[in-house]
Each structure stands twice: as structure tokens, then as C-alpha cells.
Amino acid sequence: MGLFDAFRRKKLEAGLEKTRTGFFQTIVNTLTNSQIDDDLYNDLEEQLILADAGPATAVRLVDELRDKVRAEHLKTGEQALTALREIIRREISPTDEMDLSGRPAVILVIGVNGVGKTTTIAKLAYLYKDLGKRVLLAAGDTFRAAASEQLETWAGRASVPLVKAGEGADPAAVIFDSVQSAAARGYDLVIADTAGRLHNKKGLMDELSKIARSVKKASPAASLEVLLVLDAITGQNAISQAQEFCRAAGATGIVLTKLDGTPKGGCVLAVHEKLGLPIRFVGVGEKIDDLLFFSATDFAAALLPELPKKEEGEA
Ligand SMILES: Nc1nc2c(ncn2[C@@H]2O[C@H](COP(=O)(O)OP(=O)(O)O)[C@@H](O)[C@H]2O)c(=O)[nH]1
Ligand SMILES: [Mg+2]
Question: Which of 142, 149, 227, 286 has most ligand 1 atoms within 8 Å of its beta carbon, as the pocket-test mutant?
Fold first, then answer.
């Protein structure tokens, strides 16, 4: 494991501290201190539900664990823990990667107010700039003047240029200008903010399809990813709303923010199951470097850490 990977894992572990020391610590304790029997499976199910994994997902994961324990003749809690970690890893693994092949690549960031869209855009800019990409931001939340100003401040911190327009301007026009300008000036990536309005599904759908059309019009070679931002603190509650949003907006991936602020990091499991979309990034704090590429392996390992190795002779 490289230095950078180690750093990333540490950051994820720290971000998931509340989740780890809450329900998942109980899961680890339950697994390592009990016999493998029906009581154990019931306890596990309950803990997973408390951690916001969602009832259907919790039942299915525990069923899978039961099958695996039986099929592989697992005896110890530690073996069961390893098995559960692997089941969770597989459950949350994205099956593909984001499409950033376009010129420019465009990432449209959507979601209701307050979930962390603008902050996430700044963090994405920082992350991709660090990877050597030339990034340009588009202040597509034209609903409030303060939104553009907030993004401008962040753009300054990330040292990336910003295209903005006045309050009330057409978001599709701002995004058109950004993509056109990025294509002309050789920028790799445009990350666009949007307003979190969802007064009705049709309004949102119309607005986002207009934006998608203007991306293609501005540069036929552009690619488009639509990332839906969800606040982990609202956990399960966010999900039904997100389902509406996804259907209306044709989201292609999820960013789960504020994992540092909740013990319910298990909502990753529910989000994945209910929305059927890959999780691409997780937010673990308010600072510009507090966004991580989502890694199923790291996430499962952070939720269910390996037990410290016992010294020989120790009970
Ligand atoms: N603790 C924590 N706070 C976050 C995270 N992401 C965003 N926030 C905070 O959430 C609040 C709303 O963020 P903002 O980007 O303005 O949300 P927007 O309305 O969706 O654009 C701000 O106070 C952010 O600092 C995160 O990953 N962790
Ligand atoms: Mg905003």
C-alpha cells in the first residue's frame, strides 16, 4: 500500500469514527464474543438496521452471511467477521467507473439545499486539480446571488477559474458558456453547481434536460456525469426523496456527504440498494481536502476493522 493510500484510509477511518465506535463496534464485539447461532444473526440484523443499513438490506446481508458460514464451515466469530466484511464490500462495490472521457468532461452536481453541493464542488476541484486536471467551475446555482459568491470563494481557495452570471440568469446558459469556454481553452473538467430546488418533478426534469442539451451543444465531444449529493446525517429519510430526484434527474452517481457527523454510516448500504447507483465520493469534513474517492474495500475495512492480533499465550 502506497503512502497516499495509507493516508486516505486513515482519513476515512477518522471520518467514520462515529459510525465505527457506534453500531459497527457493537457488530464487531457481537461477532467476536458470541457463538455463531440464531441469536447472533438476530443481533446482527438489529445492529445493521440501527446503523441505517435499511431493513431489507440488513436481512439480506445476514442471510448471505448465514449461507456463507454454513457453506464454508466457518467456526469462529473472527471468520464470520471476515466473511461479513467481504459481503459488505461486494454489496457496495461500483460495477463501473465514472465517464470522464469527454472534452471537456462535465460533472453536474445536483441535490436539495444544504446537503453540501457547493462544498463538494470545491473539494472535487481540489481533488482533480491535484491529479493534474485543468478544472473550471460553473456557478449554475443562479437562484441566489450568495450561491455564486460562495462558490467563488471556494474557487479562489482551490485556485481554479469560475464562470458565473447574475442572479436569476438561466442555469443552462451559464453551463453552456462554461463548457464552451472550457473546450476553447483546453480545460479537462467542468464541474457545475445547480440550485437545490425541487418544487415539482417536471420542473426539475425540464431544467436538467435543458442543461444536458446545452452541454452537448456547447461541445459535442463533452461527456456528462450527474452526481446526486446526499447528506448522510439525514440517512434513511434522504433516500425516498433521493429516489424522486434520481428518477427526475437521471443521476449517474452518488456523493454521500457528512459521514463524519453521523453514527449511521451504514446508510451507504441502503443508498446503494435503494437507488441502484454507484457511490463515487464520500465527504468526511468541511475542509477542502475532506472528500475521498469511494473505495468499497476501504469502506468495508473501515466499518469492520480487523481485530488486533492476540499475542501468543494470551487468552
Ligand atoms: N461535517 C461536514 N460538513 C459538510 C460536509 N459537506 C458539506 N458540509 C457542510 O454542509 C453545509 C452546507 O453545505 P453547502 O455546500 O453550502 O450545501 P448546498 O446548499 O447543497 O450547496 C456547510 O456548512 C458545509 O460546510 C461534510 O462532508 N462534512
Ligand atoms: Mg450551494
Answer: 286
What's the confidence (pLDDT) of residue 235? 72
**Superfamily designation of domain 3-94:** SRP54, nucleotide-binding domain (1.20.120.140)
119 lines ligand 1 (CB under 6 A): yes
The alpha carbon of 98 and the centre of ligand 2 are apart by a number of angstroms equal to 23
Atom number in ligand 1 closest to CA 141: 21
Q: Ligand 1: distance of its center to the CA of 287 in Å?
A: 10
Question: Any idea which ligand is nearest the CA of 141?
Answer: 2
Residue 98 half-sphere exposure toward CB, CA atoms < 13 A: 22
Those residues whose C-beta lies under 8 Å from the C-beta of residue 170, and which sit 6 or more positions away, are 142
Cell of 295: 473505495
State how far the Cα of 59 lies from the Cα of 65, in Å rounded to an integer: 10
Question: What does the domain layout of the chain look like in residue ranges?
Answer: 3-94, 105-251
pLDDT digits (tens, 9 = 90+) for 69-87: 999 999 988 899 999 999 9
- Per-residue DSSP letter, 232: G
Q: Which residues in the chain land under pLDDT 50?
A: 315
Please report the pLDDT score of residue 313 as a whole number: 54
Nearest CA to ligand 1 atom 5: 258
Distance 45 CA to ligand 2 centre (A): 37
The pLDDT of residue 91: 93
Summarize pLDDT for 229-274 with one digit per residue, the tens.
999 988 777 787 778 777 767 899 999 999 999 988 888 998 888 8
CA distance 221 to 293: 25
Place of cell 475532506: 290
Pocket of ligand 1 contains residue 118 by CB under 6 Å: yes
Nearest CA to ligand 1 atom 14: 116
The top-level CATH class assigned to 105-251 is alpha beta
- What is the pTM (predicted TM-score) of this model? 0.93
